């Protein structure tokens, strides 16, 4: 259940309460109004309550919340109308058959404030207190009148507060269900992300070990001579690839620079003099693209003999990684979004990988 479902529950509650008011208003209001003595304000109070019902229906029947200004104004109109109708009662008419406004106004307040349980409780309490105060100020009632009034007040308020309590429970359960659904959705998203991360990790390690394991097997079997230049280059390349792969799993604000720096670190440990220049703002680069951008770096640094220069440029909608090494560099560009170029001049090989961000 989502947040919209909570709104649906609140809309259904308002619609049910509006139906209750539409049914009981003629019975609790119109019939007693016409059949008992009334003052001039009673008719105006009844019309005001009817107007509140009609105005609220404009939003409620479309299952939309009543705007807050309308709710506030409607609650004031209901309380004032109830007070006016009560003031128009003849002597001894409080909480009797002609006191229709006491029970009816409470239902109007529930329609207006059903999805606001605390405000609804305050409004019902104020309405009840005002009715009791007007009853007390109308004259010194005897014990019989007080007992009869107590029965009416208890009967009306207990039922309306019971409906309010039920409404609060329904809304609370709907919110809890919505929160549980959101939490479950977040957990599912985290689980899917973790599974994807583990899958990428396995794929990356499988790719790195796929080129390393045959090399180790050939060294162990004596197929390769550890003193040969090509063997040393392959070992350096494998070490650089693995180091870059480990760096790929790190949490870094600039993953591309972090992975390029990992390749440079392996080369420096081999005794190479490597300079690294970085320019431009951080650009989000997908993992597979970073692998293609750093692959020429690893190859060039593995082939370099003494010196190398690495530059990373991010500008004009593209990312470029270039390496100048003092040795011939084997270039084996893989199909994908990264373009790789390599040029050799006088024993210096410049290799560049370029990716357009657009």
UniProtKB/TrEMBL annotation:
<keyword id="KW-0812">Transmembrane</keyword>
<feature type="transmembrane region" description="Helical">
    <location>
        <begin position="95"/>
        <end position="114"/>
    </location>
</feature>
<feature type="transmembrane region" description="Helical">
    <location>
        <begin position="146"/>
        <end position="166"/>
    </location>
</feature>
<feature type="transmembrane region" description="Helical">
    <location>
        <begin position="43"/>
        <end position="61"/>
    </location>
</feature>
<feature type="transmembrane region" description="Helical">
    <location>
        <begin position="12"/>
        <end position="31"/>
    </location>
</feature>
<protein>
    <submittedName>
        <fullName>Uncharacterized protein</fullName>
    </submittedName>
</protein>
<feature type="transmembrane region" description="Helical">
    <location>
        <begin position="121"/>
        <end position="140"/>
    </location>
</feature>
<keyword id="KW-0472">Membrane</keyword>
<keyword id="KW-1133">Transmembrane helix</keyword>
<feature type="transmembrane region" description="Helical">
    <location>
        <begin position="70"/>
        <end position="89"/>
    </location>
</feature>
<feature type="region of interest" description="Disordered">
    <location>
        <begin position="335"/>
        <end position="358"/>
    </location>
</feature>
């Amino acid at each position: 259940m989502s947040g919209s479902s909570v709104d649906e529950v609140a809309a259904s509650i308002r619609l049910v309460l509006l139906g209750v008011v539409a049914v009981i208003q003629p019975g609790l209001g119109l019939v007693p109004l016409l059949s008992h003595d009334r003052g001039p304000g009673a008719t105006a109070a009844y019309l005001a309550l009817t107007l509140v019902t009609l105005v609220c229906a404009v939003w409620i029947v479309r299952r939309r919340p009543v705007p807050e200004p309308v709710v506030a104004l409607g609650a004031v109109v209901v309380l004032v109308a109830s007070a006016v109708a009560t003031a128009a009662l003849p002597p001894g008419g409080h909480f009797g058959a002609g006191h229709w406004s006491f029970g009816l106004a409470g239902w109007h307040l529930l329609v207006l404030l059903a999805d606001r349980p605390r405000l609804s409780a305050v409004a019902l309490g104020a309405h009840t207190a005002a009715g009791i105060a007007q009853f007390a100020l109308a004259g010194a009632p005897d014990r019989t009148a007080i007992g009869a009034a107590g029965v009416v007040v208890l009967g009306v308020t207990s039922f309306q507060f019971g409906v309010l309590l039920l409404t609060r429970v329904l809304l609370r359960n709907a919110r809890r269900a919505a929160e549980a659904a959101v939490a479950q959705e977040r957990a599912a998203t985290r689980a899917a992300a973790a599974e994807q991360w583990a899958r990428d990790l396995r794929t990356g390690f499988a790719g790195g070990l796929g080129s390393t394991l045959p090399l180790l097997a050939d060294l162990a079997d004596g197929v390769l001579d550890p003193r040969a230049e090509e063997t040393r280059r392959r070992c350096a390349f494998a070490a650089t690839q693995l180091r870059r792969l480990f760096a790929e799993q790190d949490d870094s604000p600039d993953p591309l620079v972090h992975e390029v720096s990992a390749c440079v670190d392996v080369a420096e440990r081999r005794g190479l003099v490597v300079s690294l220049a970085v320019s431009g703002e951080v650009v989000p680069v997908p993992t597979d693209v970073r692998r293609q951008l750093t692959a020429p770096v690893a190859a060039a640094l593995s082939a370099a003999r003494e010196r190398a220069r690495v530059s990373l440029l991010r500008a004009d909608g593209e990312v470029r990684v270039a390496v100048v090494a003092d040795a011939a560099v084997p270039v084996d560009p893989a199909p994908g979004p990264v373009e790789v170029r390599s040029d050799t001049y006088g024993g210096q090989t410049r290799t560049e990988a370029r990716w357009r961000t657009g």
